[in-house]
Amino acid sequence: MVKKLNYKFEIKGVNVFYGSKQAINDISLNIEENKITALIGPSGCGKSTFLRCMNRMNDVITNCRVKGKILLDKQDIYSDKIDPVQLRAKVGMVFQKPNPFPKSIFENIAYGPRIHGLGSTKAELSEIVLDSLERAGLINEVKDRLDDVATGLSGGQQQRICIARAIAVNPEVILMDEPCSALDPIATARIEELMNSLATTYTIVIVTHSMQQAARVSQNTAFFHMGDLVETGETGKIFTQPDEQRTQDYITGRFG
Amino acid sequence: MKKNNTPQDKRLLKRKRAESRLKAYGIVSICLALIMLITLMTSIGLNGYSALQQAYVKLDVKVESLNVLDEDGFFSKKKALLFNWDGVVRNSFLSNFPDVTKRSEKRALRSLISTNAGYDLRQYFKRNPSDLNKDITVWLTVSDDFDQYLKGRFNTSVPEKDRRLSNQQIEWIKFLSTNGKVDLKFNKGFFTNADSREPESAGILGAVVGSTLTLIVTMIFALPLAVMAAVYLEYFAKPGRLTDFLEVNINNLAAIPSIVFGLLGLSVFLSLFGLPRSAPLVGGLCLGLMTIPTIIIASRASIRAVPPSIKDAALGLGASKMQAAIHHVLPLAAPGILTGTIIGMAQALGETAPLLMIGMVAFIIETPDSFTSAATAMPVQIFMWSDSAERAFYERSSLAILFLVGFLITMNSLAVILRRKFEKKW
User: Fold this and answer.
1) SS3 A185
2) Nearest by Cα to A150 from A209, A186, A107, A195
3) A43, A72, A247, B103, B117 from A228: Cα distances, Å
4) If residue B415 lies in a helix (H) or strand (E), which one and from where to where?
5) Domains defined for chain B, CATH in brackets
6) Does the distance separating the beta carbons of A151 and B321 come in below 8 Å?
7) Chain A contacts of B319, Cβ < 8 Å?
8) Longest CA–CA separation in chain A, Å
């Protein structure tokens, strides 16, 4: 029986250059809808660069050039017809370091919906904010202090604020760039839990340094090394019987 | 304890000595700077404090209302203009000296009273029309030489023919002071009058208002332009030759002698655009041109100091660069921008050279009432007073300097306070 796969992203032959230095060599990868895909690999292997191509965050980096095709729902996101601003509303991003705006919790979540015109009245915005906080599993912790400054929260809470902020604009995909690297194990566990519950609605791509995390949360894994995509496949298979020697070496801790 | 003779110990000792030497140099240089500052401010202060007081003479006057009021009992400008106020002052003053009869002596006596005393009397009755028809005593300003003599700033060791006060005049002054007819009072006129030919009626209000109007124009003109330029350069400009060229030139502009901006203002604003000369509008535009590079540099630095993660967060949510800049980065950069602006404004406030070129160095006795009326500015006023012959202008320019310095200190402290207050920590 052949399983019919739904690909959210189809990436074909992508090369990325920083000036004259090539950071990513001819990568092709498909990302399944409503699944969690983990990108693993040693530092400097290009996984964050690759992630940032998927919502064109690389556009703002000077000297960065992207070649190849990245199709989101069969449409090339690098074509002239696509407005990167609209694209980023569809493909949200959570960063390595929690970066809430130095404003109130409410304002943090409400900012996205407001600029995209999702809630015109205070009541509508308020509903979106509460809903997003609930989906991010934060509602019980912050519902009484929505007017407090978000930067006063703990690191884990700040990161969940950032996730709530990302889902408040109703994206289809959430890109996470090492979202737990600055957090303690308990906060990490809560975020992983959250990712699992979000995966039913969203397609999630996560870059991580922790192979345990990749093994725990993802359904698919792609292993990057030196700008190459070495191997990709179901997480279970990558971690138990990888095809490539390099993958084997990395997951067993021989380098990286 | 072991002696310090191993190489490590010696090195350590040497390092410690070098450190304390450096510290000592620092303390010495700060002390030197402080001593110079204190010397400067003290000498200006000693010269200027006496301008806070002004000598007044007590005169008994009576003015009939029919000379001043119109039929309806209101103060009539026309009648007041025609009335001989100087005569009233003169007669009242001369009545103190009944034995003075010679014309030349009378003239010498009269010159002890300020030539503006008649005007002051008119203004007094304009404010207090109820004192008409009554015998009242008023305190009127005396001449600057009289004033300087009372303050002990008149050098009597000079031969009489080279002095501005004769022995006879000094006798009269002594006579008046022993009879309690003269007194040193707070010099209110210094803060409420504009410039005058007579030092005793000259004040800085005109210059203060002129400076304020000029700075308002500077601020309105320079701040938005400079902030927009900074945002553009930081967020939108593609790095390359052109941007580098712009950057170098902005830094260059900040170092250009300010008189060049005055020449530019003269040829562009006055000759080409035909704007009025001596006007705060033009002065403000010139100073604005001068201030823009300062604000751009400060704004760029503070925009760059905002963590890029904030910009990334906004962009990642689908905000445009513009929205990221306006909603998130600029508010966080505002304290720095504000500081830069205030420092630029303070610099503009103390600037004289560009104003020379556009005619703001002028003798203007009216306090300016609009952006296009003729005005002068505080540093220019100081420049003009210090250039005058009268001794009394000397103390006034010193006091005006103190006033200007006080203004600058206030502005700079405001910059520090605002930065402390709005600085965000993350």
Assistant:
1) helix
2) A107
3) 13, 21, 12, 110, 93
4) helix B391-422
5) 54-185 (no CATH), 205-422 (1.10.3720.10)
6) no
7) 85, 111-112, 115
8) 57
Closest residue on chain A to B235 (Cα): A60
Structure tokens at B401: 């300097």
Distance between start and end Cα atoms, chain A: 38
Dist. CA B109–CA B97, nearest whole Å: 9
Do residues B296 and B251 lie in contact, with contact meaning Cβ atoms separated by under 8 Å?
A: no
B239 neighbourhood in chain A, CB within 8 Å? 62-63
CB-based contact B352:B380 (threshold 8 Å): yes
* Burial profile B232-244: b = 16 or more Cβ within 10 angstroms, e = fewer: ebbeeeeeeeeee
> Is the torsion defined by CA of B25, B28, B29, B30 positive or negative?
positive
Question: What pLDDT band is residue B248 in, cutting at 50, 70 and 90?
Answer: very high
Question: How distant, in Å, are the alpha carbons of A22, B119, B203, B274, B385 from that of B193?
Answer: 73, 13, 4, 30, 14
DSSP code at position A36: E
Instruction: Check pLDDT > 90 for residue B401.
Output: yes
- What is the secondary structure of B341-372 as a DSSP string? HHHHHHHHHT--HHHHHTT--S---SPP-STT
- Asked if A95's CB is within 8 angstroms of B312's CB, the reply is yes
A176 chain-B contacts, CB cut-off 8 A: none
At residue B248, what are phi and psi to the nearest 5 degrees?
-60, -40
Chain centroid to Cα B36, Å, comes to: 22
As a whole number of angstroms, the distance between CA B407 and CA B241 comes to: 42
**What gap in Å lies between CA B411 and CA B211, rounded to an integer?**
14
The answer to whether residues A202 and A175 touch, using CB atoms and an 8 Å cutoff, is no
Question: Which chain A residue has the Cα nearest residue B308?
Answer: A99
Across the interface, which of B309, B319, B332 has its CB nearest the CB of A99?
Answer: B309
Phi, psi values for residue B43, rounded to 5°: -65, -40
Condensed to tens digits (0 to 9), the pLDDT of residues B217-234 reads 999 999 999 999 999 999
CA distances from B290 to B216, B276, B344, B352, B412 (A): 14, 20, 9, 12, 18
Contact flag B316-A57 (C-beta cutoff 8 Å)? yes
The CATH code of the domain at A7-251 is 3.40.50.300
CA distance A221 to A207: 10
Calpha distance B368→B256 (Å, rounded): 30
Q: What size, in residues, is chain A?
A: 256
Rounded to two decimals, what is the model's pTM? 0.82
Residue A37's nearest CA partner among A189, A243, A222, A225 is A222
Put simply, the answer to whether A95 touches B314 (Cβ < 8 Å) is no
Q: Rounded to whole angstroms, how far apart are CA atoms B355 and B261?
A: 9
Dump pLDDT digits (tens) for B330-382.
999 988 898 899 989 999 999 999 999 998 888 888 889 999 999 999 999 99
Distance from CA of B222 to the nearest CA of A (A): 28
**Structure tokens of B394?**
């000397």
pLDDT tens digit at each of 256 positions of chain A: 455 567 888 999 999 998 889 988 999 999 998 999 999 988 888 888 999 999 898 887 878 888 888 998 888 898 888 888 889 989 999 998 999 999 999 999 999 999 888 877 888 899 999 999 988 888 888 888 899 899 889 888 999 999 999 999 989 999 999 998 888 888 889 889 989 988 888 999 999 988 889 999 999 999 998 888 999 999 989 888 888 888 888 888 877 5
- Residue B313 has its nearest CB partner, among A86, A87, A101, at A101
